Amino acid sequence: MSRPLTATVDLEAILSNYRYAKQLHPTCNAFAVVKSNAYGHGAVRVAQHLEGDVDAFAVATIEEALELREADIESPIMLLEGIFEPQEWALCVEHGLWSALENRMQLDSLLAQEGFIEKVFLKLDSGMHRLGVTKEQAPEYVKALRESGKVGEVILMTHFACADDLADLTTMKQLGYFEQTRQLIGEIGSSVANSAAIMKWSVPEGGWIRPGIMLYGISPFAQLSGAELGLKPAMQLTSKVISVRQVEAGDHVGYGYTYTAPEAHTLATIAVGYGDGYPRAAESGTPMLINGRPAELAGRVSMDMITAKLSHSDAAIALGDEVVLWGEGVPVERVATWSDTIGYELVTRMTARPHLVYRDAD
Ligand SMILES: Cc1ncc(COP(=O)(O)O)c(C=O)c1O
């Protein structure tokens, strides 16, 4: 292995976070949300490790579902946005996929096709105004699906817009709208909770929860880290120091000279850049560990390299010193705030360039 940038994924941590989500809602079934390449952790490897322990997987596209089926994943898989083209129903039938359903095209094409779909999650727009039918439309959709003979079970589903903000009562309003719709329909199963709702909001018991980001040990809340929520971080992004130099007070560093050394100090160059998914927007000061010591970004992120200094000392830094960019001791959520984004984005947009290594119990 040449360039030392490595993302080490702890598959047991992901399984343990899934079990934690289930423990919080023992009466619920739980999807493991593995869309977008399992939030950058590698969908096939993650699904292979969770297979046998999870109730079902959830993905965003049929391509993501078929990738799992090709890797011999046999658990149910749900398409969170439903189909995009009518022909996809045939693939859903062939591969035993479950699907969300949120618009007339999806309904009409499902009713027109010949096969059988075991579970359809009718998506209700309870306020986010992104996907879903209204409270008034929902009973008619449920009736049409139930009477078609082409669906085993219809479950009412919705998604929260602000569940990551514990002071915002939008989630309660959305839940109220959801319950009113359920009353109009009568007896029907439910699926409402993403990670934030699973951990901090009161959600209907007995339905299907949909944990995503929490599986990867990352907090959906700005004010709480994954560790504070009892989650185990699943990804450790590490690299090494590839060059070391002394800079004097007033020396400028990197593209655009955005960093000026306030005093003489050692400067380390590290093998990671925006070509790997490390955010170019990260500001000087973004935390990391060099050889176990707190360190921080000093200068603009390049495509393949960053520059950094120790935060509280000018101890020696040596070529080959280990750098933790995020993971144990450096929560990805905290790194994300330094580039004005969220942990979700950092792990999901990692490119294929870092070596992906798996730590598991097998
Ligand atoms: C419909 C739906 N359910 C569940 C999730 C998982 O959300 P989270 O990663 O916040 O747990 C997502 C993610 O975007 C989603 O779109």
The helix tally amounts to 11
What number of domains? 2
Order of helices and strands: EHEHHEHEHEHEHEHEHEEEEEEEEEHHE
For this structure, what is the CATH homologous superfamily of the largest domain?
Alanine racemase
Fraction in beta strands: 15-25%
Question: What spatial order of strands do you see in the largest sheet?
Answer: 8-7-6-5-4-3-2-9
Spell out which ligands are present. pyridoxal-5'-phosphate
Radius of gyration equals: 23 Å
Q: Compute the separation of the termini in Å.
A: 23 Å
Q: Quick one: CATH class of the largest domain?
A: Alpha Beta
Tell me roughly what share of residues is in helical segments.
25-40%
Q: Which topology of the largest domain does CATH recognise?
A: TIM Barrel
Quaternary state of this entry equals single chain
Tertiary shape: elongated
Instruction: Summarize model confidence as the mean pLDDT.
Output: 96
